[in-house]
Amino acid sequence: MARHSMARHSGEWPREQSEAVLPSRLAPPLLRPGLVPRAAVLRHLTASADIPVVALIAPAGYGKTTLLAQWRRRDARRFGWVSLDEGTDDPAVLLTCLAAAVARAVPVEAAVLRDLEVPDSPARRRALAGLAVSVASAPHPFVLAIDDCHRLTDPENLRSVETLAANLPPGCQLALAGRTEPTLPLARLRAEGRVLDVGVTELRMNALNAADLLRAAGVDLTPRQVADLTAHTGGWPVGIYLAALAHRKGSPGRAAPVPVRGDDRLMACSFPHRGREGRIVPTSAAECTSRARNRVRPVSTSPRSDHVR
Ligand SMILES: Nc1ncnc2c1ncn2[C@@H]1O[C@H](COP(=O)(O)OP(=O)(O)OP(=O)(O)O)[C@@H](O)[C@H]1O
Ligand SMILES: [Mg+2]
């Protein structure tokens, strides 16, 4: 195969790499029905396509992943998506995932795949260089989304992401979503107006958002109750959702048990005291949200300590 031939998508990838390119890492999450559309922040995102880096940084449960997936659905550009997990802070695994994600959005040089098959760092450097060339020569704008970017800690992985960011052509973006900002040299880019920050301020729900969420969850509260709930949770989306579940399942004042679903890590971490059969038992929606709020401080708007190189 000629060096400049292209691999178009991860399905064409060699079997050796199939362990890294797990669907759970490369597929954006499904959006459940009834989500609040977050129109203002989505408009802001789609209107900022000329800003190369988007940093969606906020504590757990602020709706970062949800917003990223909503943005992907709304934006006309293709998205390459990587969800980081315990296994992706390995340089070979991460670079393979990044290459597979980029390949879902734009053609990637086939030589990148061949270099990724060789388990040594010179080959990885070649693969990264080839991937950067593919990114720089993208035939159409695209977005590379990296979710749970706080898991990026290995210096080689940070360099890989930084290299791809540095080679994005106009109209392409790197979107980083995570609980904390990875140690990338974003301060200089920020100073140049090349980072769009979306944080707690933009992600927290107002009373109108909360009313939409509650309505979609089948919970009917008065405007005053919605306002109180919004204030009580600090607009923390998962707190409002948990309160909606507690209201829906129970009667006013004493909520019925809320089942802990295996897919809802946030419930499990917010409510460690489970009753029989793994069910959590908030006594009321107010207790539900106050417990949750005490576990994760919702507001963190102090300036970030950027790593400047
Ligand atoms: N737009 C929304 N509409 C309705 N509910 C939402 C919305 N955004 C978030 N939520 C609620 O908050 C929960 C957490 O959202 P999400 O997983 O997007 O948060 P996160 O910030 O990515 O959290 P983590 O840091 O744990 O990955 C969702 O499961 C949902 O219940
Ligand atoms: Mg998330």
UniProtKB/TrEMBL annotation:
- The highest taxon in the source lineage is Bacteria
SUPFAM superfamilies named among the record's database cross-references: P-loop containing nucleoside triphosphate hydrolases
Q: Where is this region: Disordered?
A: 285-309
Q: What is this protein called?
A: AAA ATPase-like protein
The organism encoding this protein is Pseudonocardia hispaniensis
